[in-house]
Specification:
heterodimer; A: Beta-Lactamase; five-stranded antiparallel beta sheet; 24 helices; B: seven-stranded mixed beta sheet; globular
Chain lengths: ~750, ~180
């Protein structure tokens, strides 16, 4: 069928359709023609009978039966009437015998009474089929002639079609013999508009094919350059490998071709993976995955593979193409990342992983779990016991919390993070957290036979941006307030405090940047002479509007940030600069425990003391109320400062928990009694007893005393009488800008 | 004188002959006419209007001395009519001389008679749209309407001239078998 030309096919189809159409037409037409021709013949005969019947009946009515018979006789004289009869009543008025073998038909027509129209007899006419047969034969003859003419027309049509389609076969032959790089020419072919379109389409197609071939070559080149490419037959034998494949696996091309593709498979790889690959391929699907291979020299490497089954036109598997990328480095990095994001002790993801996971949470609920007595366990039972406690606790969390959809993270020290699954209910989350605390409380942890109680607190937040800060604040609040769980967003004061802290942090930062940290000085009066001999430097912040801000508002906030040490440095710089110009006055600056323990601050202080040679006039006031955990470090600091000639004062004495024995260890020069003891000393008996005791003690230790908060004459007189060495307070001199001293 | 002497007696004899002897009738023709007459009467489409009390009255007009033929005619008519119609046919014999304008009938059968008498009856019948059937088709000259003659076959004659005046409405088929005489 394929070898038959299009022109013949078109002609044959046309002939076939025409024959079918003509056959149907012929059958229907001849059938209708024969039917209606016969019907017409019968009607013709009936018409004869109908014409003559009334006269016959009238004649018969009038008794003219002979006339009736004669009339009937006249019918038989008509051409093609071969016989008949006229029977009225029992009277056969006319009859003509005929040969039954002659092809004929009968028509019976009733004879009716002219008056009553009742049938009284009938005329039978036997009519020859000759006219009918003649008409049918003529019709057949005409149709056969017509079909003969049609056949000739088909022949001419076929030749014409062949002539019209000839350029197509020429075009087809040229396209068939076309080779990439040849020039395809159709200009010499006779063109009809349609052929022209086809030739243009072919030229365009050839251009496209050329373009796509170049592109494909480039793609192939790109893939070969960037990927490890191999091809296999359906049985898995390698039929092609690119240079990159050879380079990565270390085998020679000849060694690879014809061998099975599992040559490179690593023995660690589960056979089920290969079964899955072949199952996928035989189902004519693409397999994608990561495979672990080994090179010829036995080195492991990982490839990200895409194995594509190539199918022929009948969708039968022709060959396989495997495109791989060496991801060994990525896999190793992933493993490293996994190590970095996992806590070694507990096997839980760590804070790095938490921060990654939080990014993907749209509605975050986070809990910071803290083992309250972790430090105690660590210091009392040792690190191993503490780690063991954390490990067992983490296993308990995995068992209890993970089924609830919690993601558990091991954070610093004795802290864990709980991340609720997406769109969890907050109340339910808190309920589970409380259960975790309760469960931790019930947790039995033995160290060397000792049962250790574990206590825990949790701080929760829903703030994604500051989940660690807020949960930390909430946790601290929980621990401070003795609550087991605090939800940050429930604690309005906590929020306000946090916001206030942020505000003051920003203010301090900008003040430092814009040089708006300044010093005020308050005079200390020598009791005996009632003359100002010393000044205490007091730090102040000037806000954006020029208003002075007391350290009460910003110093505690600053202590929680690195800004505090910058403030201290600023105090040192300003005071040293000013008092280096006022030679006859001593001055003091305040140092907190944070300052003393901050190496950079102390180094800066030492550097400035040396720079200004001002140690002999400098008094360092250490605030007693802040508490000193390690007196060793304070003692070392004091000794170091005394070596520079500095003197030491304990500020706000009477408010902290230090006692006289510690004072003895510290070797201080001045004790500044806290204002709360001085404020009502003129009439408060308790203040009087405490101050009297301190004075006696100081006297014994040869320490000088300073009475703070001298705010009226009565207090002034009283403290003078008690024997304080120095007096300080608004009544004696309000704080003033340090630079005013230079103008005096 | 001689001619007068001979012609006159002949004319007298002839006249007397006419007066004294009946007309000659062809018995076969008379029989055929008597047979056809009642059937032709019934071919008048308005015949029912012309029948009173379900009686179809036929007057047979005859000339003096023709009673026998008239009787034969009556007999034949009555005999043929028996099986032709539901109405009763009354056939009465009336001599031409006795006929007067009050003698109305459904149809009139005219035997041979004087032309004047035949015309009188015919005119009367024409005036009342009644059929007149004459034994002698020559009576068409006297305004008779129908007649039958027998030659090689039987012909029914119709007086075309009188037909319109008579106003008879025959079945259309009737006109196809009659021979119309101008």
């Amino acid at each position: 069928m394929k070898s038959i030309s299009l022109s013949i096919k078109i002609t044959l189809i046309f002939v076939f359709v025409s024959i079918v159409t003509m056959s149907i037409f012929y059958t229907v037409f001849t059938s209708l023609f024969e039917k209606y021709t016969l019907q017409a013949e019968k009607e013709k005969v009936a018409l004869i009978a109908e014409t003559i019947e009334p006269i016959i009946s009238m004649n018969y009515y009038l008794g003219l039966t002979e006339d009736a018979g004669r009339l009937a006789q006249r019918i038989s004289e008509r051409k093609n009437v071969i016989g008949g009869a006229l029977l009225i009543g029992d009277e056969l008025l006319w009859k003509k015998e005929y040969d039954e073998s002659i092809d004929h038909f009968h028509v019976d027509y009733p004879v009716k009474d002219p008056l009553t129209s009742d049938a009284i007899g009938h005329i039978t006419i036997a009519y020859s089929m000759d006219p009918y047969n003649s008409a049918v034969n003529k019709m057949h003859f005409t149709l056969v002639n017509y079909l003969g003419l049609l056949s000739i027309f088909f022949l001419v049509f076929a030749l014409f079609i062949r002539y019209l389609l000839n350029p197509l076969s020429v075009i087809a032959n040229r396209v068939k013999s076309y080779r990439l790089g040849d020039r395809l020419i159709f200009e010499d072919i006779r063109m009809e508009p349609e052929t022209e379109v086809i030739s243009e389409a072919f030229l365009l197609m050839v251009d496209n094919v050329r373009e796509y071939t170049v592109l494909l070559e480039q793609y192939k080149h790109s893939v070969d350059e960037s990927s490890i490419v191999s091809k296999m037959d359906p049985l898995g034998s390698i039929t092609y490998v690119n240079d990159e494949f050879v380079r990565v696996c270390g085998f020679g091309r000849e060694e690879l071709l014809g061998t099975k593709c599992d040559l490179l498979s690593h023995p660690d790889v589960d056979k089920a993976i290969f079964e899955e690959i072949w199952k996928t391929i035989y189902e004519k699907n693409i397999w994608k995955g990561i495979l672990k291979n080994k090179t010829k020299s036995g080195v492991d490497y990982y490839v990200k593979s895409t194995i594509v089954p190539l199918l022929d036109e009948s969708s039968e598997l022709l060959e396989l193409i495997s495109i791989q990328h060496d991801i060994t480095q990525v896999v190793e990095q992933s493993e490293q990342i996994l190590r970095q994001t996992t806590d070694k002790n507990t096997g839980l993801p760590n804070r790095i992983k938490l921060s990654e996971d939080v990014v993907h949470q749209s509605n975050l609920i986070f809990a910071l779990f803290s083992l309250d007595n972790y430090d105690v366990i660590k210091s009392y039972y040792g690190y191993e016991a503490a780690y063991d406690a954390l490990k067992k606790l983490s296993e308990n969390f995995k068992r209890v919390l993970e089924p609830q959809g919690f993601q558990i993270y091991k954070l610093a020290g004795g802290e864990f993070g709980f991340l609720a699954k997406q769109d969890s209910d907050l109340d339910w989350f808190r309920q589970v957290c409380r259960f975790a605390i309760e469960d931790t409380g019930n947790f039995q942890f033995d160290v060397d036979g000792d049962a250790v109680d574990l206590r825990a607190s949790i701080g929760c937040t829903s703030n994604k941006a500051k989940y660690l800060s807020y949960s930390g604040l909430a946790l601290r609040h929980a621990m401070d307030s003795g609550k087991s769980l605090v939800y940050y967003e429930d604690q309005e004061n906590l929020i306000a405090q946090h916001e206030s802290n942020l505000l003051w942090t920003r203010k301090v930062k900008s003040a430092l940047a814009e040089d708006r940290i300044t010093l005020f000085v308050q005079p200390l009066v020598e009791r005996e002479t009632m003359k100002i001999t010393k000044y205490e430097c007091l730090v102040r912040l000037i806000d954006e509007k020029g208003k002075l801000i007391s350290p009460f508002f910003f110093l505690d906030v600053a202590k929680k940030t690195k800004l505090y040490h910058l403030i201290t440095s600023q105090v040192i710089s300003i005071s040293f600069e000013v008092f280096s110009q006022i030679k006859d006055k001593d001055f003091s600056i305040n140092l907190s425990a944070e300052d003393i323990l901050h190496k950079d601050t102390i180094a800066f202080l030492e550097e400035k003391i040396v720079e200004y040679n001002i140690g002999s006039r400098l008094i360092l006031e250490i605030v007693e109320s802040e508490g000193i955990d390690s007196y060793d470090e304070i003692t070392a600091f004091i000794n170091k400062m005394k070596a520079f000639g500095c003197r030491i004062a304990i500020d706000d004495f009477g408010t902290g928990y230090s006692n006289f024995s510690y004072l003895m260890q510290l070797n201080v020069d001045y004790i500044k009694i806290d204002g709360s003891l001085i404020k009502n000393i003129d009439h408060d008996r308790n203040s009087q007893i405490i101050c009297s005791t301190i004075l006696n003690f100081s006297s014994e230790l040869e320490m000088q005393t300073v009475a703070e908060f001298v705010h009226n004459d009565s207090v002034l007189e009283y403290v003078k009488d008690m024997g304080f060495d120095y007096l300080q307070g608004f009544h004696l001199g309000e704080p003033m800008p340090i630079y005013d001293l230079l103008n005096k | 004188m001689t001619i007068k002497r001979f012609i006159l007696p002949v004319l007298i004899v002839m006249l007397m002959h006419f007066e004294c002897y009946a007309y000659d009738y062809d018995p076969l023709l008379l029989r055929a006419q008597a047979t056809l007459f009642p059937k032709i009467v019934l071919l008048d489409q308005d015949v029912n209007v012309k029948i009173k009390s379900r009686e179809l009255l036929v007057l047979v007009l005859y000339a003096k001395n023709d009673l026998e033929n008239a009787g034969l005619t009556k007999e034949l008519i009555e005999k043929k009519y028996k099986h032709t119609n539901k109405n009763k046919m009354i056939v009465k014999l009336v001599m031409y001389d006795d006929f007067n304008e009050s003698m109305n009938a459904t149809a009139y059968f005219l035997l041979k008679g004087p032309g004047r008498s035949v015309e009188q009856v015919s005119n009367h019948a024409q005036g009342s749209n009644r059929i007149t059937f004459s034994y002698d088709y020559n009576d068409f000259e006297s305004n008779a309407l129908l007649s039958v003659i027998m030659k090689e076959k039987t012909y029914i004659y119709l007086n075309k001239k009188a037909l319109q005046d008579y106003g008879i409405n025959f079945l259309p088929l009737f006109y196809k078998i009659v021979k119309v005489i101008e």
